Amino acid sequence: KNPRKTIAAGNWKMNKTPKEAVAFVNELKASIADASNEVVVGVPFVCLPGVVEAVKGTNIKVAAQNMHWEEKGAYTGEVSGPMLADLGVDYVIIGHSERREYFGETNEMINKKAHAIFNYGMTPIICCGETLTQREQGVTADHVRYQIKVALLGLTAEQVKKTVIAYEPIWAIGTGKTATNEQANEVCGIIRQLVCELYGEEVAEQVRVQYGGSVNAKNAAELFAMSDIDGGLVGGASLKVDEFTVIANA
Ligand code: PEP
Question: Where exactly are the structural domains of the chain?
Fold first, then answer.
């Protein structure tokens, strides 16, 4: 296939308490010790300290599910880059469609967050994706290209090489309705083409583009084998050790 390391990232969303989270990763670390894919767990803020501690010395990396772009200050309820970096967080998921829909996250905010994540030594997983209406109206490519173009504004080539982009069609998230391998691969390819236009071929060959939307133990291997899909961002199926283990090896 290509030199890119496939990445299986779990997005737990608002699930598991700190104790449940530690118990889960303690089980997971044994079952995925020889995983072929890079394995990431995206956990709630309050689970981060315990999970980071529990995965030390293992092949599991840890993601937060959001971050504010300012270093500190009067932003009640927010969490900053230095706070996450201090804990030892590796990745931060930004621009998830749930955050865009329920919390008003815009492309411009996502761009500020991406800069801040790199400034504090972590790596963003930037989500994008179209609604069912947009797909039916034939504007998927335009929409996703715009989301990613704004999200990447001002980032350097070296930063974009490390960036993970998650293509998540909204109609496929949590619905059990997976995009076909071809549909998913097509849009991941469109995103890579955009990165090529903006940063050149070398960067486009290195940036990892995941697919997300009802990925499970049954469909992961086929999806991850597609030419432009470098793994998955996984919601529901990342909450069960057995199922996520299969995905981590897909
Ligand atoms: C997600 O939230 O990123 C996601 C893809 O969810 P699910 O796998 O449950 O569709």
Answer: 7-248
- Length of the chain as a residue count: 250
101 has catalytic annotation: no
Residue whose CB lies within 8 A of the most ligand 1 atoms, among 91, 125, 130, 168, for a mutation test: 168
CA atoms within 13 A on the CB side of 46: 8
**Fold classified for 7-248:** TIM Barrel (3.20.20)
- Tell me what ipTM this predicted complex has: 0.96
Instruction: Please tell me the predicted confidence (pLDDT) of residue 176.
Output: 87
- Pocket probe mutation, ligand 1, options 7, 11, 40, 167, max atoms within 8 Å of Cβ: 11
Confidence (pLDDT) at 1: 57
CA 232 to ligand 1 center in whole angstroms = 9
Which ranges constitute the DSSP H helices of the chain? Answer: 18-31, 48-54, 81-87, 97-103, 107-119, 132-136, 140-152, 157-162, 181-199, 201-206, 220-224, 241-248
Selection from 232, 133, 147, 134 nearest residue 184 by Cα: 232
Residue 216 identity: N
